[in-house]
Design goal:
Blueprint: E1 5-8, E2 15-18, E3 67-70, E4 85-87, E5 90-92, E6 97-103, H1 117-135, E7 142-149, E8 161-167, H2 172-188, H3 192-203, E9 207-210, E10 214-217, E11 228-232, H4 244-265, E12 271-276, E13 291-295, H5 311-314, E14 318-319, H6 323-331
Parallel strand pairs: 2-14
Antiparallel strand pairs: 1-2, 3-6, 4-5, 6-8, 7-8, 7-12, 9-10, 10-11, 11-13, 12-13
Length: 334
């Protein structure tokens, strides 16, 4: 591919401009220092480490595996029911919910890339248990499992951890994806992401790594340079529908993908990662397929990132490195 083209994001309906002729342009922009990797296994100043007093006045237990607690500074609060505004020009609604923190390990120095597949499988099992518990609450309509890794992505603490936000209404991105998946399902009688995965497996050029139950690939419509999509080979609507072998397979793919990221520029790779799954309203939602998005910002090196500014903010996402080239570079490192 050597000419500009736009590609349709099947999950959102947005277009992405791919401009491979720009990939060799000179760079004179910012190149910040890559943060050094922290090798301290326990930091008494870290509020996520075992046995440490958190800012809210609660002391963490001497946990040995995965540890979950309610966020001391949550973005959502339980019990809100009253509307805020019924002005048609100033629309606002109360949004009830809760936020939790999931510490992946007591070892402060780890990242997911440094954890074993079995250790990651324990995290997957915790995500699943949390989803089941929160989905059963009548006031919760959606559960979002995610992780911000690295200072570049706004992580406030280097300790290996992620978050779960459970809220009353389904958030914007998940609504858009659900609508696109529903439209495809009603037209074609099959799930969108199952059909898409079959096409990608046939082509092979955007596959990063795969096992018997999960596949990681750079989506055809990727906007971020080394964006990845993690898909199950068997269409399931949520983490709770995965079998034990599938949970192990997901952990294996997460391990292989994050290790490949770290090898790409020899740095602890920053990213935002999260799972999209069915709403928790009790309906079946057979059109929805569980999947995970990885959005890493690095572009040219450990210190040069992609910025979504200018044209991207005012018009549409644009990328220089093609998804096929990105996938090939990551595939060689798995």
């Amino acid at each position: 591919m050597s000419r500009p083209e736009r590609r349709l994001n099947l999950l959102t309906g947005d277009w992405v401009l791919v401009s491979p002729q720009r990939v060799s342009r000179p760079w004179q922009g910012a190149a910040s220092e890559a943060a050094p990797r922290d090798r301290v296994t326990h930091d008494p100043a870290c509020y996520l480490c075992a046995g440490v007093m958190r800012a809210g006045g609660v002391r963490n237990p001497e946990y040995k595996g995965v540890y979950v607690f309610d966020n001391d500074y949550p973005a959502l609060l339980p019990g809100l029911t009253e509307g805020v505004s019924d002005d048609p020009l100033l629309v606002a609604q109360a949004e009830a919910g809760l936020c939790r923190v999931i510490c992946y390990s007591p070892d402060h120095s780890l990242t997911m890339a440094g954890m074993s597949p079995r250790e990651i499988e324990t995290v997957v099992e915790t995500w699943t248990a949390q989803f089941v518990e929160l989905a059963a609450r009548p006031e919760i309509g959606a559960v979002t499992v995610f992780e911000n890794r690295g200072e570049m992505m706004g992580a406030s603490n280097p300790h290996p951890h992620g978050q779960i936000w459970a809220q009353q209404h389904v958030p914007n991105e998940q609504v858009r994806e659900a609508d696109q998946q529903r439209a495809w399902f009603e037209t074609h009688g099959q799930t969108l992401l199952s059909a898409y995965l079959a096409r990608e497996l046939q082509a092979g050029e955007r596959i990063i790594c795969a096992n018997e139950t999960f596949v990681a690939l750079v989506p055809f419509w990727a906007a971020w340079p080394f964006e990845a999509l993690v898909l199950p080979r068997r269409s399931v609507t949520g983490l709770d529908e995965l079998t034990p072998p599938e949970r192990a397979g997901l952990a294996d793919i997460l391990s292989r993908l994050t290790r490949a990221y770290d090898r790409l520029f020899e740095v602890s790779f920053p990213y935002t990662m999260g799972f999209h799954q069915r709403p928790t309203d009790g309906a079946a939602h057979p059109h929805i397929t569980l999947h995970a998005h990885f959005y890493p910002p690095l572009l040219r090196s450990a210190s040069v990132r992609k910025f979504m500014v200018g044209y991207e903010m005012l018009a549409m996402p644009q990328r220089d490195l093609t998804p096929e080239e990105a996938a090939a570079r990551l595939r060689d490192l798995t």
